[in-house]
Amino acid sequence: MIWITIAAMSVVTFVPRLIPFLLGRNLALPPWVRRWLAFFPAAALGGLIFPGILSVVPDKPWLGLAAGACAAAVAWKARNSIFPVLVGIGVAVALEVFF
């Protein structure tokens, strides 16, 4: 019985993802829709990252904001994605130690 439940849950999860994939191949979207959809990855990433930035140190949300701002500034110019991560960690640790 458990295997039937797992199989049914798999189908219910898979089908809604499969339908847009199959039907969307031949769908021509207007340019303004494509531009609008291009911002979705950044918006989703921001929605995932920002709460974590505020909760780096529960009593000091400004610490996470400062580290996030420094990481964003480095990410603006850096070509390698590891540099903003290292800067964000370094600033967060430095501010935690000194404040």
- By secondary-structure content and strand pairing, the structural class works out as mainly alpha
Q: Sketch the topology as an H/E string, one letter per element.
A: HHHHH
Could you name the ranges where pLDDT drops below 50 across 5 or more consecutive residues?
none
Q: Please indicate the percent range of residues in DSSP E strands (runs of 2 or more).
A: under 5%
Span from first to last CA? 57 Å
What's the pLDDT, averaged over the residues? 92
Question: Treating each run of at least 4 consecutive H or I residues as one helix, how many helices?
Answer: 5
Give the number of domains.
1
Summarize the biggest pleated sheet: none
Query: Can you tell me the overall shape?
Result: flat
Helix content: over 70%
Radius of gyration: 21 Å
Number of strands: 0
Would you write up a description of this structure?
The chain is mainly α and 99 residues long. It contains 5 helices and no strands. The longest helix has 22 residues, at 2-23. The model has no long low-confidence stretch (mean pLDDT 92).
Describe what is shown at a glance:
This protein has one domain.
